[in-house]
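Regression test case RT-17, inverse folding.

Input:
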C-alpha cells in the first residue's frame, strides 16, 4: 500500500463529531453500523512497518535531527517527502 493511501486510511478514523453524525442518521442501529464501519478503529488494520519507519524519520527531522544526504536511502528520502506533503497539507 502506498504511503498516501495508508496515511489517508489512518487519518479517517472515527471521531466524536463523526459518531454524533452517525447517531443522528442511524438512530437505534448505530451500534450495528459501527461494527461494520470502515472508520471504526477496530476495523482498521495497523500501519505497515514502512509507514511507521517513515513517520519516525519525519518526526526526527521535524524535531531538528541533522540528517546528512547519505544518511538515508533514496526510498527513505522520497517516503519522508511524501509523508511531509500529506502531514503538512492537513493544517
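Golden output:
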Amino acid at each position: 500500500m502506498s504511503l498516501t493511501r495508508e496515511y489517508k486510511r489512518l487519518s479517517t478514523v472515527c471521531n466524536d463529531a463523526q459518531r454524533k453524525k452517525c447517531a443522528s442518521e442511524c438512530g437505534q442501529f448505530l451500534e450495528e453500523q459501527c461494527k461494520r464501519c470502515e472508520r471504526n478503529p477496530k476495523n482498521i488494520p495497523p500501519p505497515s512497518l514502512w509507514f511507521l519507519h517513515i513517520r519516525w524519520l519525519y518526526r526526527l527531522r521535524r524535531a531538528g535531527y541533522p540528517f546528512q544526504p547519505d544518511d538515508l536511502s533514496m526510498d527513505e528520502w522520497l517516503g519522508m517527502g511524501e509523508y511531509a506533503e500529506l502531514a503538512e497539507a492537513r493544517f
